[in-house]
Amino acid sequence: MGTLPRESDEREAAGAMSSIYLDNNATTRPSSQVVEAMLPYYREHFHNPSSPYPAAEAVADALRKARGQVARLFGAERADEVTFTSGGTESIQSAIGAAARAANGRTRILTSTVEHSAAKASARHLSEQGFEWVQIDVDREGRLDRDALFAALDERTALVSLMLANNETGVCTDLSGVGEACRSAGARFHLDAVQMPGKGALDVRALGADYASLAAHKFHGPKGVGALYVRSGAPFEALVVGGPQEAERRAGTENVPGAIGMGCAAETARMHGTDADALERMRGLRDRLETEILAAVPGANTNGASQPRVPNTTSITFPTVDADTLLMLLGEAGVAASAGSACDAKRRGPSPVLLAMGRSEEDATRTLRFSTSHETTESEIAGAVAAVRASIEALGSLD
Ligand code: PLP
Known about the structure:
It contains 16 helices and twelve strands. By secondary structure, the protein is α/β, with parallel strands linked by helices. Helix 5 runs parallel beside helix 6. The radius of gyration is 21 Å and the shape is globular. Pyridoxal-5'-phosphate binds near residues 116, 192, 215 and 226.
């Protein structure tokens, strides 16, 4: 399987600010295939898919096709198990809210301590309304305490919400047996799969998920569109009401170009996520980046590298340099990385994920995340390593 079209000339012509983009867990560049697929739905096929004439029916057909493409990415049995949303956050909050509304006297919500803030904010909101929110710990390598999870999962549990891959460290949660345990306890299981497409296989059925969430912009699709999987038969009450769209799961005229773009991106992500060569190439570049940075900067450490990880992510704690300063110097050198979750970047403060992994506040504020894509090249990795070395030298932190 080939990599995504490089389009580097196109990007240079557009005067891309950061020539080495290593922040793909924050968002990815929409592929030109995706943009091309969307354009006709802005220009010619702008009709409302609910309208009663052939041009509108053609749009409804295209929406159906996109739903099927996204269903295949999820590994869903049926296309009608997929609802288009505005993104990962809405999908997650819809799923958690739906499970809570169907709790039927159950009062416990289980998450891990390293979930995305979208899931944590939903759980916190429910805890303010009388639910008991239990956060299961991870160890220093980001590994979930599965014994604690299974011990807390009982007849009081309404919902378990866990991520498949962590956005900051890339660590994959060991979910074996979680779906079955939820089913036998009568609890619902929501999977935050936002960081997985294109980086590994996704199979909501094999994992026993009742709900699962995706965001198109994390896998070379457009922003402002996501998808929620609701297993056929799982309870669901819409968060956004007021119209019959999306089988009454999400009211409002559909974001047709967004859904078309997501469908197109889903096809490529499904191929990449199951293509051993493409994944190996991705892992090789990430490993090279990690190894060379660790060799260039004595005292630098990885976070979660001993665990199964998605092949594009590395989290590195630097000795004595503040992440914001390093990011600024890297940015000036044309390298885009991040200090953790993009959503928390503006909130400041140390990463809750790293604190949950037992890192000190100081170490958490000295940590950078680099995340590649299938477009990343060897020479970009070499350029990034050189920029890290030069930045740290400039800060006087290398002997
Ligand atoms: N879940 C995870 C694991 C994420 O990484 C993100 C985004 O960073 C989200 C959920 C939220 O997705 P969005 O920002 O598209 O709403």
